[in-house]
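ok so i was messing around last nite and threw this chain in just to see what happens. nothing serious, just curious
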Amino acid sequence: MSVSKRIQALASLVAFDSVVADIGSDHGLLLQELYQRGYLLNSYGSENKLGPFLRLEQSLKAYPKAHVYLEDGLNNLPESVKTIVIAGMGGELILEILKRGVKELGRLDYVILAPHAHEQEIRRFMLEHGFMIDEEILVHETHFYEIMRFKKGTQLLSEKEYYFGPVLLKKQRDLLKTKYQKIIENDRYLIENKPLSLKRKQDLLQEIKECESLWTPSE
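result:
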């Protein structure tokens, strides 16, 4: 079975000496990929509804060190876990999970996040809660996915770095330009071709301005 670029990128950010929990693990593809790569430790996958939990349990039957539990967000996170992954969700939902589980963050070594949107808000939240950006990967399949790894520490970022990601600006600027050029093109199409409220037009124009700041010199 082929593994998506997104799953491969997530797996590449998991330290093999850190017990990991995949929150909202879906079919357990990330945990399966880790074990295929030689991960030796116990791991955990969670779901918050019975149906997905049972599917996850079935998917991981062949991996005795992959443990499945039924829980919401970071509730009852196993004590041995030092790395969490939250991926495949909207940015607002990920922020909600982090806010509800903020007490658990303090005992973690790494937090790996891959939101579908609101990346800048997530960067800001994590830096405000004692973490710094350790690594970032931008993946393009059908969509663009920004994957961020945080570790304990302090860090100062410019507004541009919050928006685009400090590591991505250094390592994947060309792919970032492709991502944000598509957003600009879509926003302009909406402004020119769709009946929008004044507020919606202003929001899109502001988004275009923010995206175009990628092309301007750093502050």
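not much to say yet. The radius of gyration is 19 Å.
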